[in-house]
Amino acid sequence: xxxxxxxxxxxxxxxxxxxxxxxxxxxxxxxxxxxxxxxxxxxxxxxxxxxxxxxxxxxxxxxxxxxxxxxxxxxxxxxxxxxxxxxxxxxxxxxxxxxxxxxxxxxxxxxxxxxxxxxxxxxxxxxxxxxxxxxxxxxxxxxxxxxxxxxxxxxxxxxxxxxxxxxxxxxxxxxxxxxxxxxxxxxxxxxxxxxxxxxxxxxxxxxxxxxxxxxxxxxxxxxxxxxxxxxxxxxxxxxxxxxxxxxxxxxxxxxxxxxxxxxxxx
Length: 266
Ligand SMILES: C[S@@+](CC[C@H](N)C(=O)[O-])C[C@H]1O[C@@H](n2cnc3c(N)ncnc32)[C@H](O)[C@@H]1O
Known about the structure:
Elements: H1 2-6, H2 10-24, H3 32-42, E1 46-49, H4 57-63, E2 69-72, H5 76-88, H6 91-94, E3 97-100, E4 114-119, H7 130-143, E5 144-155, E6 168-174, E7 180-190, E8 195-206, E9 209-221, H8 225-234, E10 241-243, E11 257-263
Parallel strand pairs: 1-2, 1-4, 2-3, 4-5
Antiparallel strand pairs: 5-11, 6-7, 7-8, 8-9, 10-11
Helix pairs in contact: 2-5, 3-4
């Protein structure tokens, strides 16, 4: 049930990269430098959990000599897109990448095997229950070697935005075939469970003709900074640090990102 609410559909996978580029002006939302640097410093096997279409995984593999670089991804549609991207990459980079089916709570990796486990662009927020979050963090710790690093990003919840919304236009862009795509999102917020259900709708038009009208949805859980610190400590990451952005600046009154950097110390 939990996974089915967060699994990315084919509709989502087919539009993920184009939407991302239109919203952020390209494949980098300011996070590539951090994850690449951590992978260089890790100097050993690297795993991205919730690797999606490989937006971060491929640049990380290309910028390092890390081997293997494992992308764990539970959605069949996203994993297929990732595998296609790996197949089209420089063969010397592709040879070091492994794509695996798995989730945060069941990582297909041996104990103590990873120098870096990271998760980019909020994949961890698809873990929807507190018990599963704890299980997920313990699972990351299990696969890290002693001295290895965990790096996760979440959004820093802004309580002023945590309410139900009517569909809002998120992005409009022109596709390769000339059609204009609009994406509209609506949110339903469950304040008790700290869940947000996001309903996506894409309309593709050429002139007045509607070519596509497609819907999909997923759920995320938002987590507050001190709650996250408690979860990390319970999972055995006693030294975890939480930053406010990819430049590792402090959390401030203006909510941005929550970047967790933690070490497996024993
Ligand atoms: C916002 S995308 C991020 C993809 C990629 N990391 C990036 O930065 O572009 C979130 C990804 O998390 C995956 N996901 C959903 N539930 C998950 C879970 N329980 N464990 C691991 N990944 C999950 C989704 O299928 C999706 O590919």
